[in-house]
Amino acid sequence: MTERVAHFSSRWAMLAAMLGMAVGTGNIWRFPRVAASNGGGSFLVAWVIFLLLWSVPLILVEFAAGKATRYGPVGTFAKLMGRRFAWMGAWVAWTSIAIMFYYAVVTGWTLRYLWAALAGELPGPTPGALWERFAFSPSAAFWQAIALGVGVLVVARGVRGIEAAARIMIPTLFLLVLVLAIRAVTLPGAERGLSFLFTPSWEGLSNYRVWLEALTQNAWDTGAGWGLILTYAIYLRQREDTALNAFVLGFGNNSVSLLAGIMVLCTVFSLMPDAANQIVGAGNTGLTFVWVPELFARMPGGRVFMVLFFLALFFAAWTSLISMVELATRVLEDGGVRRGKAIALVGTIGFLLGLPSAVDTRWTDGEQIFLNQDFVWGVALMVSGLFFALAVLRYGVRRFRETLVNTRDSDIRIGRWWEWVIGLAVVQALVLVVWWFWQVRAQPLLGTYGVGSVLIQWGIALALFLALNGWMVRKTHPEVVRETAPAGEMPPAIP
């Protein structure tokens, strides 16, 4: 185990970094679309409930486990569950790293559109003109490389680099989203968007799809169960609280989502009400890179607000990418790789494995690869959340709460309700995986969204991690691998 002496310099620095990790493109481009597609106000009710039933409980697990073990996912699962379960930590780590490969592409898109907004290239002669000539082209790989390269440089500076970037970007991001939301609600007709977003209906609340979509949104936009919070929690100060921080992170993240929903839906209902269904149904990339420029072009002073929007989107994407680079680096560092070499490997491999999702070539279809990887590893995040819940159950739910969550430094104490909710998280994760598979049952088995494609890739990853389980334990926890150790497993205790 490598010695860890660096810590976040303050609680504010830690929360800024954590919010930078949690707030990403899913808050700004996915939340407004999903909320609008699922009844607006009815979706919000379910979304807040699952914030408390999924996101906050798992955020608590990651905060507490990372602070206690001072390891990344592989080392943490071996400590909590025993040496036979290091493969679960490898799954959690790999899922987020696999997302990093194509998320660097998305971050490159946001940077390119920020440049286009500044240069006056938007909205273009036709809706989506820039997107059609830019997406999945060699130019996209260029912007991917810039986004990933600058993220690597931040991580190379260690925790000080991460918190320095977050101190600037997160307050700026919140301010930008707030300004955009205020501008949106002052547009003529914006009240229709507010009414739609904040008025629940019994019909919507009785629709099971609304509840499943709300649970999915929480699983994807708070970072709970990704292993990213756990990785940043390594740098918590010894006397840092975990319980209150978990609630601040969860509600802070979802506040950005809500502001983004107000911003987008009020703008749509004000400027293009006749095209509202078309805009909302355009998908994440269509909403953001095709219709947002069209919307701002119809707004007084729209070019300025368009620049602010894409600046906010880039900050959200880039701070999340930084956390993924740090997670990958930490896994290698825990395994004995020097940090400098680990960062170089992450940057190089991350760029190369992200290329197929960035560009179309004569051998590959970049768009289909991107969509496939987004689906395969997006659904895999539900399994990651499941593994975190199982780790707590094996360690002992009450023991975990009393010894790792409710420490003497806690500002608030977590009650027994949390023990019940952790068990519920197992059910929620299983339901989500089954539901997503059910939704794509009519797709070609090995197609972009095929269940066979998912299971094959998951199977390869799981087989590799199971085969390498013992090796990972020896590399990460050499102190527990000795001839006198009992056969079977390391006791699930944290020294």
Which helices and strands appear, and what pairs or packs with what?
Layout: H1 11-22, H2 25-37, H3 41-69, H4 73-81, H5 86-119, H6 129-134, H7 138-156, H8 158-185, H9 190-198, H10 202-205, H11 208-221, H12 228-233, H13 243-271, H14 276-280, H15 283-297, H16 302-334, H17 339-358, H18 366-395, H19 397-405, H20 417-439, H21 451-467, H22 469-476
Structural descriptors:
495 residues, mainly alpha, single chain, Amino acid/polyamine transporter I
Structure overview:
The structure is a single chain. By secondary structure, this protein is mostly helical. It has one domain (11-480): Amino acid/polyamine transporter I, CATH 1.20.1740. Helices cover 75% and strands 0% of the residues. It has helices at residues 11-22, 25-37, 41-69, 73-81, 86-119, 129-134, 138-156, 158-185, 190-198, 202-205, 208-221, 228-233, 243-271, 276-280, 283-297, 302-334, 339-358, 366-395, 397-405, 417-439, 451-467, 469-476. The longest helix has 34 residues, at 86-119. The model is unreliable at 481-495 (pLDDT under 50).
- Helices, by number, come to 22
- Helical fraction: over 70%
Instruction: Please identify which CATH superfamily we are dealing with.
Output: Amino acid/polyamine transporter I
Strand tally? 0
The CATH architecture would be: Up-down Bundle
Q: Globular, elongated, flat, extended or rod-shaped: what is the shape? A: globular
Mind telling me the C-alpha Rg? 22 Å
Order of helices and strands: HHHHHHHHHHHHHHHHHHHHHH
Amount of beta strand: under 5%
Low-confidence stretches: 481-495
